[in-house]
Amino acid sequence: MDKQKVRDRIMEIGIVPVVRASSPGEARIAAAAVCQGGIPIVEITMTVPGALEVIRELAKNSASDVLVGAGTVLNAEAARRCLDAGAQFLVSPGLNLKTVELAVREGKLIMAGALTPTEVITAWEAGADFVKIFPCGQVGGAKYIKALKGPLPQIPLVPTGGVNLSTAAEFIEAGAAALGIGGELVQADALKSNKPEIIVENARKFLAIVKQARAQMASSGIAAKSSH
Fold first, then answer.
1. What pLDDT is recorded for position 71?
2. Which CATH class is domain 3-226?
3. At a CB cut-off of 8 Å and minimum separation 6, what does 13 contact?
4. In CA terms, which of 69, 133, 171, 225 is 20 to 30 Å from 148?
């Protein structure tokens, strides 16, 4: 899938499930569960033991419409290994310009992490496709996204941290292009107790919230402004 298609898929679904798991097996269960719940996107973080192998396996064995990405990518060397393993997109927790440069050079989508307005602008000018605002919940949540979108309406922001079932709609209404959701979607307890159905249900709930929030915005005429 080329970069534009990957970008379109993320925009369309509006959710990037962040998989942090304590074993490769748990990561596989989590990936299968979010897909079953209707989200054909999975970000395997580099903190998962054997993360590269998990990415390689998922990229090879998943249906062609499932996007497999790598998260917590800290530098260009790690990014290179993730792309070699088959990752279709990269996500970093903070702004590392060499990582962005590598992704741009390779024609791969990157969601660069940033927090301050300066970092957001720097990431965008360097060629990031999305800018991940992390940790968003700690700096005002949806209000912070709304504040950033004021002067920076052209930059697609993906809040991560602080996104849960009760705040997801607010983030979409504030102008978020998509939501990065970790533990609130891929619950550690559900993985530990081998209850993937909880994750499947979470995925469905989050999808419904995003859909509804976007529909309400469209009906009130805000969508035109926030989708570009």
1. 98
2. alpha beta
3. 39, 40, 41, 178, 207, 210
4. 69
